Every structure is written in structure tokens, then in C-alpha cells.
Amino acid sequence: MTDTTQMQASDRPVVTRFAPSPTGYLHIGGARTALFNWLYARGRGGKFLLRIEDTDRERSTPEATDAILKGLKWLGLDWDGEPISQFARAERHAEVARRMLETGHAYKCFSTPDEIAAFRDQAKAEGRSTMFLSPWRDADPATHPDAPYVIRLKAPRDGETVVRDAVQGDVTFRNDQLDDMVLLRSDGTPTYMLAVVVDDHDMGVTHVIRGDDHLNNAARQMQIYHAMGWEVPVFAHIPLIHGPDGKKLSKRHGAVGLEQYQAMGYPAAGMRNYLARLGWSHGDDEFFTDAQAMAWFDLDGIGRAPARLDFKKLEHICGLHIAAMDDDALMAELEAFMKASGRPELTDKQKQRLSRALYCVKDRAKTFPDLLDKAHFALIDRPVEPDEKAAKILDSVSRGILNQLTPQLQNASWDRDKLEAVVAEVAEANGIGLGKIAGPLRAALAGRTVSPSVFDMMLVLGRDETLARLKDATA
């Protein structure tokens, strides 16, 4: 009995890869796979490579490739070297198939599609396995016709193939359940299964971290490694991401493309943090930096059960990152968000005010739209148009109090303590609490009944703008 067991990769420097197909948007599940590969390599001083699996010429598009590269850049995942095109390496893949033919690990199969279909129909009718058993597997080359053929792997028929998976544990496949897969089509083009193995070997990949929908592929791909005498990489097949309802993630759950998350206003650092925790854990740690994630991330922390997307948790994590972000970096990402979401560009005046306002609005914002909403007072121009609730507060009595306050503020030192003292004096003179004057003041400065502290707004707006808004409100 043959026991085809996976040989573990040696102690070579770690090399991981992300290999998306450019047939559509970058799925959030693919983004997490890329992140896991990036963290594993970067945390060990290794390389993270990018391969575009563009062999499906009918569905692969340059636009999809650009979207993938753009998405990875936004997420902050840098790769080593230039992205590799799988299609461009077709001749190398074919060369390996021909080499396996020479060494007896592959054979020419002349069976036609009609013959294969007939075989399967008969097997189905007789209740047998429909796995195709080629009559050309052990045929004498002298009997080969002058006709089109495919090159098939001569897979072992006895024993088992054991995939020693770093996440799933040992997974055993009976070899009699694994077919002689096609390596090279009759038109000379390589199949995906062959191309993946050749590319991973040539790129020096030591760890293949990918979705567990590829687990069955691993057993068949291992047979190519063994046939070529190549070292098998460490496999780590991670569970897929499910929606909040526990079903496979799809468009019905909301955004599934990575670019949608940028346009929705989630910060890249928050997305990295949340995606890292989606199926992997380090104790009870929820919020962490990139440096901590790189130091902590390991394959044994990945669970075997599918992870569930939770938008509330995502917003919570993103809010923590917005609050912790450096103001210059936050402004840069805010501007990129506005461009990605199709919002108007900020004027220089808006940028200056928003930059000054960040200290008092970023602590409670969950997303960039949330932050911009809280900074509404800094982004609007005079005259401030109060909303319905704010307009009700600005009654004749309130306007009279603001009229008293305005000249007091004209000569005040523009610091928080002095501003608070002046407002408190006017409130006391009118026999009201500070809260009663803060409402009209908020309505005059922001045009809303909910905003940051009135004193924060006054400091951000400055003396001239604050006084001008008060005069507009009392006119």
C-alpha cells in the first residue's frame, strides 16, 4: 500500500503568496487571505508575493487586476517584487508536464470528450464511480494514434495521500478516489492545477495559506510535487467567511467587495485589525496595531469553524483606530475616502478647519462619514442654516441672550477657560444654567442640536467666524 504523506517545508526563509483571479472585484474573503499571508511573512522577516492567476482569458480583465492591486494598496498590504502573471508562464507549465511525461509520471490520453461522457453515463447507469479511468494509462506508445491528446498525471491508485494541514490537521484521501487529472490540454495549454504547483515551486513558496475550499486540491497537487521530486510547502487551509446568519457570505449580506468598504468609510487600519480577528485570535485581544499583529500571528491561532462577519464589531474596531490615528494620517485617509466615495473635494478652508477639529470629533466616530457628520460645523460656510430643531431653539429669548454674549466674547482671550468663564457669566446674569445657553450657542454655530462641545467649536472656528455666526443667528 502506498502512503503518500506530505513532506513539510524545510527551515527556509518564509515565502507566502496571494494568488487572486482577476475575474471580478477583490472579495473580502480574499482580502483576509491576503492579510494572513502578509502577516505570516512580515512577522518572520519573509517575503509576501503576489501572483495574478489570469489563465481564464475570457473572464480575466485588466480592470479587475487594477481593482485587486488598488484594493491591496488601500488595505496597506505591500508585496515583494512585481506581480507575476500566471498566463505569461504557460510555456514553463507545459515544460513541466512534458518532463513528467518523460519520467513516466504522466501519460498521453487520446480519449475524446464523447468517449469520456459515454464512460461516465455507463458508470452512472451501473451504479459505479463516474471517475474517468483512461484506457491509455498503460498503453504501449507504439499503439498511440496520430490524433489530439491531453497529458494526464499518472496518479497512484493504491494507498492514501495525507495532507498535513497547519489548520485542519491531518486530512486523509484515498488514492483510488483521486483521478488522473489533466495537466496539459489538447491545445497545449496547462490546467490550473498544474500551473499553481509549478508557480508555487518556482516562486519558492514555503507556506500556502488559502481558503479551505482548496483543501481537496491540495491532495492532488501534492502528487505533482512528489512526481517532480519537489519539496511540498506547508498547507494551511482557512475556513471561509460567513454572513451574520451563518450562511456563506454573499451580496445579500451587504458589501462583499473590498472597494466597497473603503467607499463606506472604514479606515484601512481598522479593516486590517478586524479581518485579522475574523477567524484568528490571540487570547482576548481585540484591538491591536500592525506591529502587534505581525508579532502575534501564527497558524495555530486560526480556528477551524467559519468566521461570521459582524458589522457592529467592525465599526467598534474602526472607531478605536480612528481615535488612535495620527491627525496627518487621518486627514490623508479621509481625503482618499472622499475621492473613493465620489464626494466633493474639500476646499483648503475646510481642510484647515477639519484638521483643527479632529481632536474633538475623532474619539466618537466609528467611520469616516460618521466623523464628517460630527465635524459638520467646521465644514459649512456662513450663513449657517439651522435644521428644524435648532431653529426652534433660536427663539427671541435665546437670540437676546446671544446678543448679550457676543460683545463679551469680542474682547475675551480665545482660550477655553476664558470662554467658559464668559459664557458662565452671561448665563448667571440671566438666571439660567450653562446648559440653557449652550443649546442656542450650539444651534448658532453648528445649525444643529447635537454637536461637539460649544467651546471646542469656538476654538476650532476662531474668534472672527464664531462672532460672525452669532451675529447671523441674532440678526
UniProtKB/TrEMBL annotation:
<dbReference type="InterPro" id="IPR045462">
    <property type="entry name" value="aa-tRNA-synth_I_cd-bd"/>
</dbReference>
<feature type="short sequence motif" description="'KMSKS' region">
    <location>
        <begin position="248"/>
        <end position="252"/>
    </location>
</feature>
<keyword id="KW-0030">Aminoacyl-tRNA synthetase</keyword>
<dbReference type="InterPro" id="IPR049940">
    <property type="entry name" value="GluQ/Sye"/>
</dbReference>
<feature type="domain" description="Glutamyl/glutaminyl-tRNA synthetase class Ib catalytic">
    <location>
        <begin position="14"/>
        <end position="315"/>
    </location>
</feature>
<keyword id="KW-0963">Cytoplasm</keyword>
<comment type="function">
    <text>Catalyzes the attachment of glutamate to tRNA(Glu) in a two-step reaction: glutamate is first activated by ATP to form Glu-AMP and then transferred to the acceptor end of tRNA(Glu).</text>
</comment>
<dbReference type="InterPro" id="IPR008925">
    <property type="entry name" value="aa_tRNA-synth_I_cd-bd_sf"/>
</dbReference>
<dbReference type="InterPro" id="IPR033910">
    <property type="entry name" value="GluRS_core"/>
</dbReference>
<dbReference type="InterPro" id="IPR020751">
    <property type="entry name" value="aa-tRNA-synth_I_codon-bd_sub2"/>
</dbReference>
<dbReference type="GO" id="GO:0005524">
    <property type="term" value="F:ATP binding"/>
</dbReference>
<keyword id="KW-0547">Nucleotide-binding</keyword>
<feature type="short sequence motif" description="'HIGH' region">
    <location>
        <begin position="20"/>
        <end position="30"/>
    </location>
</feature>
<dbReference type="Pfam" id="PF19269">
    <property type="entry name" value="Anticodon_2"/>
</dbReference>
<feature type="domain" description="Aminoacyl-tRNA synthetase class I anticodon-binding">
    <location>
        <begin position="331"/>
        <end position="473"/>
    </location>
</feature>
<dbReference type="InterPro" id="IPR001412">
    <property type="entry name" value="aa-tRNA-synth_I_CS"/>
</dbReference>
<dbReference type="GO" id="GO:0000049">
    <property type="term" value="F:tRNA binding"/>
</dbReference>
<dbReference type="GO" id="GO:0004818">
    <property type="term" value="F:glutamate-tRNA ligase activity"/>
</dbReference>
<dbReference type="GO" id="GO:0006424">
    <property type="term" value="P:glutamyl-tRNA aminoacylation"/>
</dbReference>
<comment type="similarity">
    <text>Belongs to the class-I aminoacyl-tRNA synthetase family. Glutamate--tRNA ligase type 1 subfamily.</text>
</comment>
<dbReference type="Pfam" id="PF00749">
    <property type="entry name" value="tRNA-synt_1c"/>
</dbReference>
<dbReference type="GO" id="GO:0005829">
    <property type="term" value="C:cytosol"/>
</dbReference>
<comment type="subunit">
    <text>Monomer.</text>
</comment>
<dbReference type="InterPro" id="IPR000924">
    <property type="entry name" value="Glu/Gln-tRNA-synth"/>
</dbReference>
<dbReference type="InterPro" id="IPR004527">
    <property type="entry name" value="Glu-tRNA-ligase_bac/mito"/>
</dbReference>
<dbReference type="GO" id="GO:0008270">
    <property type="term" value="F:zinc ion binding"/>
</dbReference>
<feature type="binding site">
    <location>
        <position position="251"/>
    </location>
    <ligand>
        <name>ATP</name>
    </ligand>
</feature>
<dbReference type="InterPro" id="IPR014729">
    <property type="entry name" value="Rossmann-like_a/b/a_fold"/>
</dbReference>
<dbReference type="InterPro" id="IPR020058">
    <property type="entry name" value="Glu/Gln-tRNA-synth_Ib_cat-dom"/>
</dbReference>
<keyword id="KW-0436">Ligase</keyword>
<keyword id="KW-0067">ATP-binding</keyword>
<keyword id="KW-0648">Protein biosynthesis</keyword>
<protein>
    <recommendedName>
        <fullName>Glutamate--tRNA ligase</fullName>
        <ecNumber>6.1.1.17</ecNumber>
    </recommendedName>
</protein>
